[in-house]
Amino acid sequence: MKIYTRTGDQGETGVIGGRVPKNSVRVEAYGTVDELNSFIGLAVSSMAEDRYSDMRADLLEIQHELFDCGADLATLHARSYKVEASMTDRLEAAIDRYEKETSALSHFVLPGGSAAAAHLHISRTVCRRAERRVVELALQEEINIEVRTYLNRLSDFLFMLARAANAREGVEDIHYVRGGQVFRTRS
């Protein structure tokens, strides 16, 4: 199989159900999800297998789910979708699980700390951008809204995972010091 097809040489690409310009909001949305998936792969590569086996397994599952998000976003006409609410529910349960490893959050956290946390923070910011692209697409065309919800929760998950990675490394989160306490303590 040849990797090049030449079908995109005129500035269009194939999606499920037809062809669209390569600069369409739809392509931008699923392209940003693909970029996110690559950054998550980079984050995984920075995590020692022994210390991060659970996180690595969660992130591998998320990488598969991001392909599902991309497939749903690359679909022009409504059909059965791959992304379901249960995927977001699983993220919420994981957020709660990893939060137990971290200290109470009282201030904004600057991206950084350990290498793994820094990579996860980059993934989080790309996830937020992907979410913005999906919101823009949803204003213009029909999409699977579960993708938007999933990406919103995924950014929360990546934030919590970054904090948990720092905790596992014994590295303090870097607090934003030019502001006051902005979060209430846990109950």
UniProtKB/TrEMBL annotation:
GO terms for biological process: cobalamin biosynthetic process. Coiled coil: none annotated. It is an enzyme of class 2 (transferase). It comes from the Bacteria. One of its GO terms (molecular function) is ATP binding. It catalyses: 2 cob(II)alamin + reduced [electron-transfer flavoprotein] + 2 ATP = 2 adenosylcob(III)alamin + 2 triphosphate + oxidized [electron-transfer flavoprotein] + 3 H(+); 2 cob(II)yrinate a,c diamide + reduced [electron-transfer flavoprotein] + 2 ATP = 2 adenosylcob(III)yrinate a,c-diamide + 2 triphosphate + oxidized [electron-transfer flavoprotein] + 3 H(+). Its EC number is 2.5.1.17. Pathway: Cofactor biosynthesis; adenosylcobalamin biosynthesis; adenosylcobalamin from cob(II)yrinate a,c-diamide: step 2/7. Pfam families: Cob_adeno_trans. The keyword Ribonucleoprotein does not apply. Keywords: ATP-binding, Cobalamin biosynthesis, Nucleotide-binding, Transferase. Residues 3-164 form the Cobalamin adenosyltransferase-like domain. Homotrimer. Belongs to the Cob(I)alamin adenosyltransferase family. This is Corrinoid adenosyltransferase.
